[in-house]
Amino acid sequence: MILVTGGAGFIGANFVLDWLAQTSEPLVNVDKLTYAGNRDSLAVLAQDPRHVFVEGDIADRALMAEQLRRHRPRAVLHFAAETHVDRSIVGPEAFIESNILGTFGLLEATRAYLDSLDAPAREVFRFLHVSTDEVFGSLAPHEAAFTEAHRYAPNSPYAASKAASDHLVRAWHRTYGVPVLTTHCSNNYGPYQLQDKLIPLCIVNALAGKPLPLYGDGLQVRDWLHVQDHCRALRRVLEAGRVGGTYAIGGRSERANIEVVRAVCAILDALRPRPDARAYADQIVHVADRRGHDRRYAIDPAKLTRELGWRPGRTFEDGLRATVQWYLDHPGWLRGAQPTEATAPPTALTP
Q1: Catalytic residue (one of 113, 158, 189, 297)
Q2: Number of C-beta neighbours around residue 116 at 10 A
């Protein structure tokens, strides 16, 4: 048994589905079901006894202690987090509560759980903390990509809250001996992503005939990683990663935001042409840039390849086309994932 936090969110749900497709080992999935959590993403598991879903907050130490005591997992995989930069600018408090205090509570519950284990069980236990490349700040156009040795320089409330959680994880390993693993991933894309992120929001707005607003000049660069490749990497790190180690996970697919939006538009032109036969790219408009917008992120996953043999399996072009097709094929999921007025997505396209 493993325990997953945030397993109804985008990356977490993909990991849960991938895990149960690849192994018979059961898991318990704890998710608070905020705006970003969607039980519909896990609908195929409704009758699967290997999937135990618990609605709850990771900051609730009593709840987490009970789940750990009851299920006796051999690992905790920590996905639960507030993740959207725009939302963190508007309302940073939720990011402090979830990403910092939530991680603290989870680490404390895990530390107490470890004290209850015998030596063999403690020896094999792992706490895998899923972080982001945004903790490293912004890269200049020709700077080398981020590696595990890059210094922290977070520029948004979201990035700062994730950096703080990373430091807590490191401290609980060095001070208390919690056997941790930390990963830093680049921008994920793929199925089950809520429409407050660039690719699904671009698809939804394009099909609805709405403008496709891009921040600034649209030349901000991100490194794109298909979520299924990310899931493979996480399984490999959990299996063979060095305790206390960090691993950068990137797709080696740097693209400017405007390139991504134009690529989505071209795919839609081919798969779902507009009734008036005009190009979807005609809907692109440029809007004022957001505050503190990082110019470029990129990940060098060489360590992960060298030590654990992982490489991204999908090209961005193949993965993007498959992603657009998935959203076209699942209009019901998109309707079910519509945010409420109180949690409406940002008005501009952003990863």
Answers
A1: 158
A2: 12
**Global pTM?**
0.95
Number of domains in the chain: 1
CATH code of the domain in which 64 resides:
3.40.50.720
DSSP string, 118-163: -HHHHHH-EEEEEEEGGGG----TTSPPB-TTPPP---SHHHHHHH
The H or E element that residue 16 is part of is helix 10-22
Domain extent for 68? 2-195+224-254+297-314
Contact 3, 30 (CB under 8 A): yes
Task: Judge whether 101 lies within some domain.
Answer: yes
- Asked about 158 being catalytic, the answer comes back as yes
Catalytic residue flag (residue 300): no
pLDDT per residue as tens, the chain (351 positions): 999 999 999 999 999 999 999 999 999 999 999 988 999 999 999 999 999 999 999 999 999 999 999 999 999 999 999 988 889 999 999 999 999 999 999 999 999 999 999 999 999 999 999 999 999 999 999 999 999 999 999 999 999 999 999 999 999 999 999 999 999 999 999 999 998 889 999 999 999 999 999 999 999 999 999 999 999 999 999 999 999 999 999 999 999 999 999 999 999 999 999 999 999 999 999 998 888 888 999 999 999 999 999 999 999 999 999 999 999 999 888 766 665 444 444 556 667
Which of 31, 133, 223, 229 is flagged as catalytic?
A: 133
Task: Give the DSSP letter of residue 285.
Answer: E
Catalytic choice (57, 134, 229, 254): 134
Instruction: Note if 133 is an active site residue.
Output: yes
65 inside domain: yes
Q: Where are the beta strands (DSSP E) in 186-287?
A: 187-189, 212-215, 221-226, 246-249, 254-256, 284-287
287 belongs to a structural domain: no
Please report, for residues 91, 96, 148, 279, the alpha-carbon distance to residue 107 in angstroms, rounded to integers and kept in the order given.
25, 16, 22, 50
Residue 93 falls inside a structural domain: yes
